[in-house]
Design brief:
By secondary structure, the chain is mainly alpha-helical. 87% of the residues lie in helices and 0% in strands. The chain starts with 5 loop residues before the first helix and ends with a helix. One of its GO terms (molecular function) is kinase activity.
Length: 117
């Protein structure tokens, strides 16, 4: 199978990002969190290091949410009916998002604390 040219691969990736933005509520919430953080970065005039930490934490959550969604879609395709083993796999993927979110909140508290108090 011939690999598509780079611009086509980029188009497919953008299509995937736009699709998850349109269809997945949790991703929309996480994206809203990123936008709120970008606003706070500008308003509070964070240092470049603090900005990098916040952006990295936000994108970690977005990436894990995308991977979680991909795992859920694969599981639903493989086994459309309820299956406890598939449920366990989905729970693991959701747990990864939760851990990433807890980590991002911890980073946010540690970074923003200095600017707010």
């Amino acid at each position: 199978m011939k690999k598509p040219p780079f611009y086509k691969s980029l188009q497919y990736a953008i299509k995937g990002i736009l699709s998850i933005i349109r269809t997945e509520r949790n991703f929309q919430y996480h994206l809203l969190g990123l936008l709120l953080n970008l606003f706070l970065i500008v308003v509070l005039q964070l240092t470049s290091t603090d900005t990098a930490l916040i952006i990295l934490a936000c994108f970690t959550v977005l990436v894990t949410e995308m991977l979680n969604t991909a795992i859920e879609k694969i599981c639903d395709f493989i086994e459309p009916n309820f299956n406890p083993k598939i449920g366990f796999i989905k729970d693991l993927a959701a747990g990864a998002v939760l851990l990433a979110t807890i980590g991002a909140i911890a980073v946010g508290v540690l970074v923003y604390w200095r600017y707010l108090y």
